[in-house]
Here is the input.
Amino acid sequence: MYQTFVGLEIHIHLNTATKVFCGCKAHFGDEPNTNVCPVCMGYPGVLPVLNQHALELAYTVSLALGCQLSHRTLFDRKNYFYPDMPKNYQITQFHEPVGQNGSIEFALADGTTKKVRIHDVHLEEDAGKMIHAGDMTLVDYNRAGYSLLEVVTEPDLASGEETEAFLQAFQRVVRYLGVSDGNMEEGSMKCDTNVSINKAGAGLGTKVEIKNLNSSRFVKKAIEHEQKRQAAVLEAGNKVSQETRLWNENRDVTETMRTKEGGLDYRYFPEPDLPPFVPDASFLKRIQDAQVELPLARKQRLVREFGLSREQADFVTDARFTADFFEQAVRASAASGGSAMANWLMGDVQKELNHFNLTLEACPLTAGRLASLQSLLDAGRIHTKIAKQLLVSIFEEDKDPETLLQEKGLESIATEQQLAPIVESVFSAHPNVVAAVKAGDARQKGFLVGQVMKATGGRAAPDLVNALLAKFLA
Amino acid sequence: MDTKELETTALLAQIELGKGDLARLGEAVSQMLDNFRKMNELDTEGLEATTHALVTDNRVRPDSPVPSDLADALVERSPELEDRFIVIPNVL
Here is the structure.
């Protein structure tokens, strides 16, 4: 049996308004080569100047991942010739990255957790974008110089499935921290995957790097393909060659891109144009203040504190906004527990969001409104069916539940005093049905319930209707 | 430095060297390496590496856009353009 080792090099675009070494806008989707200047176009004689916010975000991630923070971080030149990088080198960090030796804990499908060690976190610049078309390549340098954060893990992941779960967890972490939108499809999070297999207990095998993976799903599939391919190579008595392979999403296979030869040598050396950065006390205070409760910790706390099921907790903590919304709503509705609120969010609220094509962030439902809706239910002033109607009205009319309740006159008829006369009038209008039910035809009881509901416009509390019918029929 | 090593270095730097260049540069580079070797003999135990002299404070800038007024001029210097993309031979 073979053992699999997966290590990742994850790149995220940091949420900065400008590029990392120049004042050009870092904005996706602009006309090609508009956000460019002599610095990011690699003209001679220019000087890069570090974007302080990019450094703050880089340190924020490093601290959240439990890294040792560099007290004097340095930049290095990584030399290579390719037209996506007009300077012929990339400014990155090699000798003294922002953070080293951290770890991330994440949940596996069975609910247990696993820790992945982080080798280092370093800040660098992105390359330009190239479109290959026929015999020419089109180059756009708008993206050249974007703040890019690379997080390098140790080879601690053991399967495609585990890696997919890890990437999703990592994505949640960067979104919770607000440092990146972490969207793989749009290229704001990318991941190179190193896979090796070996006989169990024999340590790491020969590393193969896979590029061109733009979703966590493809990462999983590519790892699974590599496990089979490398096993077949070893079974045939051959050696796995150390190389870079590309994922071909049309054929679900990896293909050789380049074999690592002696020729590939980046000749790193300290970047002479950028002085070291030494974080001072106020910088470190800001990094400290930017920390948040991370998704896994929050999930575990919500299970503990509000008795949520794993499924509920997964849903609620998937996005930080939803988790905040949930906690605000629970705390604002005195009587009800977390489970009822989680069910609202997973069920009817999600249904209305889909229906109106809205997000929770930008919809008329606030945590306060959901809490008062639940409080009306808890107080018995409305029943579930009316609550669902009111929820739709909140989405349609953008008003508070209490206001809607008054305007629409939907308050429950929940006292015997109010309901008894209505039941009596239904009984006197349908004597035959009443007689039949009394004679033992229980099926017709539903008809009577329906008539009471009709007479009250659906506002009668169902429990009370049943209780009164039982009493009157006795 | 032997010729093979020099050739590899030239390849990495994308520099084309002729036979005469190799001999001349081989000698010059060897001399440089000898100088570094000499410096390496010094005892630097316990000293922090100096990457930059004369720098005492952090040099950073705020994250606010300062668009360049040179963007159009830079793009127009390219030999070939298509919808503002810079056109080069296919490198894939």
